[in-house]
Specification:
alpha+beta, four-stranded antiparallel sheet, three-stranded antiparallel sheet, 9 strands, 28% strand, globular
Length: 169
């Protein structure tokens, strides 16, 4: 049975906001150092801070045509036999799931359900990594009833009939 689990974040990875002018969105908002992007910290709310010119700056993300929040950043990639920083997109919800949520099936759980189907909400407790079939079941149920309570989504995540349909293909 799958249960919701959140990753333990080591204190040394967390940015001390007292050194910044940034006001947290909630008492639990933390910014964690990104290992893939240069001078970047990601919050459990999907916000991003960049350190440049001796100052911490909260970045303004943009939204794609699907309403997905993203940031243009320099990402550390292996290219032409060496590591370089290359401009790349960081999709907020995907990054938050990877950084803060235990995803037991990273290969298949590539869809992310946002609480109340609000794609602008990237708060980690409102994100659910799902496989395609699970996502479709949750979306259909939400459109029909307006219900996407965690209890329902966990039930869908643990429904062997839905998992079996995905893996039998």
């Amino acid at each position: 049975m799958i249960e919701r689990q959140y990753k333990d974040i080591r204190p040394e990875q967390i940015l001390d906001l007292s050194n910044t002018d940034i006001i947290p969105l909630g008492t639990d908002e933390i910014f964690v150092k990104s290992m893939d992007c240069k001078d970047i910290w990601l919050s459990n709310y999907g916000r991003v801070i960049r350190y440049s010119n001796g100052k911490y700056n909260l970045l303004q993300g943009s939204y794609d045509s699907n309403g997905t929040l993203l940031y243009m950043l320099k990402k550390n990639v292996f290219f032409d036999s060496k590591w370089i920083y290359k401009k790349d997109y960081l999709f907020a919800a995907k990054a938050v799931v990877e950084k803060f949520i235990v995803n037991p099936d990273k290969v298949n759980n590539v869809y992310i359900w946002h609480g109340e189907n609000d794609k602008q909400d990237c708060y980690y407790r409102n994100l659910y990594p799902l496989n395609q079939k699970q996502y479709m079941v949750v979306r259909k149920h939400f459109k029909k009833t307006g219900d996407d309570l965690e209890e329902f989504i966990i039930k869908v995540m643990n429904d062997i009939r839905i998992l079996y349909k995905v893996y039998e293909q």
